[in-house]
């Protein structure tokens, strides 16, 4: 007998406890560029100068990036420039940033029948040089771990695993920065 999830996302009540304990009922599906993924997202805010993760948030994969935007803004950050990709661009977000005293540096996006202008493309190119540093963090995590898959059940455990991965990245990055500055000579293996 095939049972499915109810519309509210909860598993069917007739599932036995053993089956229920093996299913991640907190995780959700998402689709990006035609590829479906099940699980969680790691949203991060970094120091663009040193590539250190300053804040992070873990959500179900179905949560849009823009929903955690305000949560990731760190008021203790000395820079008031906020770089983000076009998924975060909206009149509300830009107004909120300006009200808080930030300078939005969010990528422009085109719309059907109204592509971005040459000047907007040049601005996007300039902003991408800083914004791409976030992708370097995910690339480094992928290189170290081999992938970004978290094999846990439940959001609490996934958040812990992702938080530890972010912490490990920061430790490695900090060690690199210390060696580069000459503060330490080598990191023991």
UniProtKB/TrEMBL annotation:
Extract the GO molecular function terms from the UniProt entry. Answer: DNA binding; transposase activity
Q: Does the keyword rRNA-binding apply?
A: no
Which residue stretches belong to region Disordered?
1-39
Q: Name one GO biological process term.
A: DNA transposition
Q: Does the keyword Zinc apply?
A: no
* Domain called Transposase IS4-like: residue spans: 22-171
Signal peptide residues are none
In this chain, composition skew of type Basic and acidic residues spans 1-29
Q: Which Pfam families match?
A: DDE_Tnp_1
Keywords recorded for this protein, A-Z: DNA recombination, DNA-binding, Transposition
Similarity remark: Belongs to the transposase 11 family.
- Stated name of the protein: Transposase IS4 family protein
Native source species: Dethiosulfovibrio peptidovorans DSM 11002
Provide the taxonomic classification: Bacteria, Thermotogati, Synergistota, Synergistia, Synergistales
């Amino acid at each position: 007998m095939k049972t499915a999830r109810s519309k509210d996302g909860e598993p069917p009540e007739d599932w036995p406890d053993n089956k229920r304990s093996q299913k991640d009922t907190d995780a959700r599906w998402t689709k990006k560029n035609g590829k479906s993924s099940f699980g969680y997202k790691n949203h991060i805010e970094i120091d663009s100068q040193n590539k250190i993760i300053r804040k992070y948030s873990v959500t179900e994969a179905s949560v849009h990036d823009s929903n955690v935007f305000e949560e990731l803004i760190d008021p203790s950050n000395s820079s008031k420039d906020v770089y983000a990709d076009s998924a975060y661009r909206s009149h509300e977000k830009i107004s909120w940033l300006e009200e808080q005293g930030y300078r939005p540096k969010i990528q422009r996006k085109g719309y059907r029948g109204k592509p971005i202008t040459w000047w907007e493309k040049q601005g996007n190119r300039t902003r991408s040089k800083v914004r791409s540093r976030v992708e370097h963090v995910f690339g480094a995590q992928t290189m170290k771990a081999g992938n970004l898959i978290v094999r846990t059940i439940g959001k609490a455990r996934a958040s812990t695993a992702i938080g530890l991965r972010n912490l490990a990245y920061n430790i490695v990055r900090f060690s690199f920065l210390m060696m580069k500055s000459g503060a330490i000579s080598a990191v023991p293996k």
